[in-house]
Description:
Layout: H1 8-25, H2 29-40, H3 44-53, E1 61-66, H4 73-86, E2 91-97, E3 123-129, H5 141-150, E4 155-159, H6 170-173, E5 176-181, H7 188-194, E6 202-205, H8 213-224, E7 234-237, H9 246-262, H10 267-288, H11 292-306, H12 312-331
Parallel strand pairs: 1-4, 1-5, 2-3, 2-4, 5-6, 6-7
Amino acid sequence: MSSPAGGPAETRWTARATELCGAALSGDRRSLAKLLTAVENRTPVAEAALRRLYPLSGRAHLVGITGPPGAGKSTLVAALVGELRSAGRTVAVVAVDPSSPITGGAILGDRVRMQAYAGDRDVFIRSMAARGHAGGLASTTGAACSVLDAVGFEIVMIETVGTGQSEVEVAAAADTTVVLEAPEMGDEVQAIKAGLLEVADLVVVNKGDRPGAQRTASQLRAMLAGRRGQPGPAVLITTAATGAGVPELLAAIDARRAQGALDDDGATRLARAEAEVRGALADRIGRSLEDAAMAVASEAAVRAVAAHEVDPYTAADELLAGLIGSGRKDSK
């Protein structure tokens, strides 16, 4: 439970956030890791830090890497990191992993990812547990990206869990969405119907040394051409394990960034801002419902709905009205 505004606890949180932010902005990777842990755990320190860091973000290119299991997302991310570092560019990776059913932590971890870059200060790799959040991301992925953006990484790559064809949430979190497919993995038409390819800015047929890679790429180009009333996304072929096609993919990503800088409607960033505000609002409402008085009202509403004494919509309206009324009282 938070302390009143300006209380001792809030002062401590603000001081700790200021300390961590200052160190992270100065290049201290340990402090950056602690900040990201606070963000993932939704602590008051994280919120205080984000209030300070958010105005410094908005400069990095956020690149989402998504696709079905087995497409080679991690291998391709590692290859892109290598290509970026060979050009002297800084890069951070937020790798969203499945959650442990026991601890809630990431089953895969950054200790088993991209060990070659462990000592490179211009590469930062963070594994985040999905913690049951649908859509292929963790609920705090956007906030983590804002922190990495603010401390100066040029490119932040977001690698999704890889649970299937429905993880389209990455499109709202990234400036450029790269969707991976592997040769002959199944019915491409069905994949498009399922929605994942609908949000692609770039499509990559990985494992291009396998038989059928060229055929898969041709089929995807034909099916994606002219979708959404404009030319379809570029379809590229890579073999991430050898690096083949990776420079061309990075060039396409950079071209997307240049194109985005020329766009004056800012639709992608507006969509991301809307998602961030809605997420913060939902989190606020969720935490408010856990307060003692609201918890009692919430339980009573649930029991009334379960007994069919009131419908769910009326119950929700009454709880929302209670939250608004409580907020007005607190502000006086």
